[in-house]
Amino acid sequence: MKIKYFKWPIFISLLLLVAFVQYSAPDAYAEDSIKIVIDGKRIKPDVDPYISNDRTLVPIRIIAEELDSVVEWDNDNRAVHISKEDVHILLRIDSYLVEYTNDNETTHTIIDVAPQITGDRTFVPIRLISNALGVGIEWDNDERAVYVDSSESSEVTNFFDVEISSIKAGQTITGTTELYTRIINDAPKGAKEIKYLLLDRDTAKGFVIAGGSSINSPYEWVPAMEDNGQKVLVSAFYDAKGNFLVGDSIPVTVKIDPQIELKGITEGQLITDYSVPLSTNLNFSASYVKYEMINPDNGAYYISPGVDPEQSFTMIPVMEDNGNMSVRVIAYDTKGNAYHGEYVNIGIDVDRYLYLGGVKQGQSIDGSVTLLAQRNFNVTDTEYIMVDNATGEETLMFKSGYGSYSWFPGPEDAGSKNLYVRVKDTAGNTHISSRVTVNVTGTPKLLLQGVGPGQVLTQAAELNIKTNVKLDSIKYILTNARTGKEIVISEKNIAVIIPEEGDDGSWSLRAEGIYGGKTIISEEVKFTIYTGQLYSAKPVIEKDLYLDLVSELAVNTRKFTGMSASLQVAQAILETGWGQSVPVDKYEGRFSYNLFGIKGEGTNGSVTSNTWEEYNGVAFRIDAEFRAYNNEKESWQDHKDLLLLRERYAPFREVMYDSTKGAWALKRCGYATDSQYAIKLIDIINRYDLKGLDEVTI
Question: Which residue of 53, 161, 445, 664 has the fewest CB atoms within a 10 Å radius of its CB?
Fold first, then answer.
């Protein structure tokens, strides 16, 4: 059994909470009441001891008074201070953590039953008396009596056969630390999860810093800068319902001196590669990092956007970088404070490259392609050139300062062609790429733009065409899917569809052009016209009430799953614009209660809303089904199940207790495509001080 390092004098006040409301003691005892006997004297509490969960609990005040202790009640913090001479004991209602101070040495222990208030009196387990006072305590089951003997001395012992063994009490934590709890005998019965909590010594509140379902495994803890200070580290085992079973605690000091190591390059290295993956090694948990690059020769400066601290960043040197370069990492904490790594000084000596992108050697081209000058130097002029392999004739297809070229070769371009790009650098020197041989079919084609497949047209739409020939004529033809009737709506290059009442239903559209006496027909695009009433997204609640609504849902979820409540709330804020833009069925007006913008079928089916697609280079909206629920709780439950049950979110579940790590894990798991999604969530958490929603105790 683990023994703490000091003994308590027999006169120390009971490590028990006290209530201050005074009652007159009854003149007689109930026959079945539990007796309290101190040094042979039976005392008369106004509220009887009782047995709860096989533990005998006794009131503190009357015992403390008998032992001449000073007891003070802190109503604001629901805490009891018990002291005598140089000994002080701190208890908190409903908290398993007890603090002992003797001769200015403070330690903590985890008890098996938290102090609780019954009949306006504070009760604690009798074993706590022995630990607190260093006195003898004995339970006589036959007599239903608690005997306290101040002539006996006892040591403060652990309540449980588990101990944090990977670090020592009082250890200073300076960076990444392994956490391991040794189970001395058998594993706690019913234990399904272990959590490590880092608690503030003054408040006994803090945050989960590690944990998981593998109770016999070590866990890695990467402290955050906000963890700095005097703390209590707690390991706690829980059953499947989240009930505390056993645990251990030790005092630690977190003192992070930020260490930021740039990986991927070394001091004095000469870089000749066209791309260099960079990463960083930190001794603390950062919200995000940026990579800063400075050319001391010409003063050129670049800093990356905020990126995932656990992912790599690719540096792409260009010709203008040749020479000296200084690179460093800047890490940011949740408050936005910047911590700068040391500069790594390197040399850049990359060879110039220029090649034509967008096509491959030997490719057969039967449509539109986008040509791009791939290069690693700055240019002032860019020319895309085609060479006829049969005649040797060169054609300048497109010229600009820089940028791509959309090439849609026609019949006149048919045959074997060589393509290349010619550029002029900032010094006026000309550079030419190698040639790419392609085979152009030159088939006359007509592409329809303005309406896409599956689109629901609710307002006027401008139509256009993209073609690789010069048409003699053009017309746009609408076909009613129900009647088969065709309507020519325009014979000009640009046309407009204006939906009118009575046009509702399924249609198709095609364009027909005449070229060389032959008809060219575009793809038939099927769409729907709707002229009825449309409904748009609506608020789920007033904006100023939304935070309270989602905070309650999030905290309840955290209590049962361990998932960061602040992260849940930030997602709900970001996805719905503070609850003011929740999907509604655009045709029926039925409200979805969908707080996370999840597509598919929910507990109340789905609602039809909009999403974006692209057709022939033009973006358009199409209908999409979003999950519908009967209330906000069902939406919250579904979001929870999505993250806890889907295999793709397994990496998220490993860090879901931490809002920062969880935000980046969601991004890596593909929850959102926005490259700044994690940073947006972290910013919301910090800006609106949501971190407190994740606060826990033991």
Answer: 53
Q: 132 and 23: one domain?
A: yes
| Overall domain count for the chain | 6
List the domain range (segments joined by +) for residue 79: 3-157
- Tokens matching residue 527: 């769409």
Give the percent of the chain with pLDDT over 90: 78
Token code pair at residue 347 = 């040399």
Q: Supply the angle between the helices 677-687 and 659-668 in degrees, to the nearest 10.
A: 160
**E strand spans, 201-350:** 206-212, 219-221, 229-238, 244-254, 260-263, 270-271, 276-282, 288-294, 301-303, 313-315, 323-332, 338-340, 344-348
pLDDT, mean of residues 88-94: 90
The CATH number of residue 284's host domain is 2.60.40.10
Residue 210 domain flag: yes
What DSSP element (H or E) covers 667?
helix 659-668
Dist CA 589 CA 474 (whole Å): 40
Read off the pLDDT of residues 259-281 as tens digits, 9 standing for 90 and up.
999 999 999 999 999 999 999 99
Let me know whether 322 and 280 are in one domain: yes
- Write out 636-658 in H/E/C secondary structure: HHHHHHHHHHCHHHHHHHHHCCC
Strands 172-173 and 181-183, sheet pairing: unpaired
Whether residue 8 is predicted with pLDDT greater than 70 in this model: the reply is no
Cβ neighbours for 392, distance < 8 A, ≥ 6 positions apart: none
Sheet holding 55-59, edge to edge: 50-52, 55-59, 121-125, 116-118
Confirm if 687 and 86 have CB atoms less than 8 A apart.
Answer: no
The residue among 21, 36, 46 whose CA lies nearest residue 145 is 36
Q: What is the dihedral of CA 51, 55, 56, 59, to 10 degrees?
A: -100
- What is this structure's pTM? 0.87
Q: Cβ–Cβ contacts within 10 Å for residue 481, how many?
A: 13
Helix (H, G, I), strand (E, B) or coil at 227: helix
Tokens of 115: 């102090």
pLDDT tens across 319-346, in order?
Answer: 999 999 999 999 999 889 999 999 999 9
CA distance 646 to 623: 25
**What mean pLDDT is predicted for residues 408-429?**
97
Would you report the helix, strand and coil content of the chain in percent, each value rounded to 5?
Answer: 15, 45, 45
Question: Please, are residues 373 and 358 in contact by the beta-carbon 8 Å criterion?
Answer: no
Domain assignment present for residue 287? The answer is: yes
Same domain (yes/no): 175, 124: no
CA 309 – CA 289 distance, rounded (Å): 6
d(CA 59, CA 354): 84
pLDDT at residue 25 above 60?
no
Please state, in angstroms and rounded to a whole number, the distance separating the CA atoms of residues 613 and 621. 6
Quick one: pLDDT band at residue 156, thresholds 50, 70, 90? low
Averaged pLDDT, 276-290:
97
Residues 339 and 285: their CA atoms lie apart, in Å, by 12
- Give the list of residues 6+ apart from residue 249 with CB closer than 8 angstroms, or none: 97, 108, 109, 110, 164, 232, 233, 234, 235, 698
| pLDDT tens, residue by residue, 545-598 | 999 999 999 999 999 999 999 999 999 999 999 999 999 999 999 999 999 999
